[in-house]
Amino acid sequence: MFNYVKKLQYPINIKKPDPKAAAIIISQYGGPDGELGASLRYLSQRYSMPYPELKGLLTDIGVEELGHLEMIGTMVHQLTRNLTEDQIEKSGFAPYFVDHTTGVYPTSASGSPWNAAGMQVKGDTIADLNEDLAAEQKARVTYDNILRLVDDPDIIEPIKFLREREIVHYQRFGEGLRLVTDRLDSKNYYLTNPSFDK
């Protein structure tokens, strides 16, 4: 069971609407390396994780990613509330607006809707942890790219916070992978199919 605290992990208080920024930040809501995929990946991988401490790690990070999803959704909402028709047209936000008005919809910045095919759950400890390490780095790069394209401090500071959390998650998954590989050798490497080593 999870306890929900009705407070964002980092405060979001964007004063100026900016549909152009919203159109790129939405990628961390429903893009290929976004928070929705991350949370579902980790919360799904935890079921087949044989190590209790790593099952706990996947649960903790998966739940935290849901909090990040909430932050990104709040940012997109604040960036698009009370837009004028002129702002929508001049910013390039019109295609999104036509389909979703200013609702927060899980999509990438390029307009592709979120798809579970972008995440992987293999049920193999080594494969899943390597997937998680790659996912955190791809998310960090996406935040790097967003930071290159925005100039509003109200946007920059929460994005920097989220970027830092991706780095921490990468470090925790790296520790988890080291913990597992220290326990493995050629006789037990294939945890889900030990018959390979007979």
Shape: elongated
Total beta strands:
0
Low-confidence stretches: none
Query: Which strand-content bin applies to the residues?
Result: under 5%
Number of helices: 8
Secondary-structure element order, N to C: HHHHHHHH
Nearest-angstrom radius of gyration? 19 Å
Helix content: 55-70%
Mean pLDDT: 92
The structure class reads mainly alpha
Q: Give the termini separation.
A: 40 Å
Largest sheet: none
How would you characterize this protein structure?
The structure is a single chain. By secondary structure, the chain is mainly α. Helices cover 61% and strands 0% of the residues. The protein has helices at 19-25, 27-30, 35-45, 52-80, 85-91, 94-100, 125-149, 153-183. The relative contact order is 0.18. The model has no long low-confidence stretch (mean pLDDT 92).
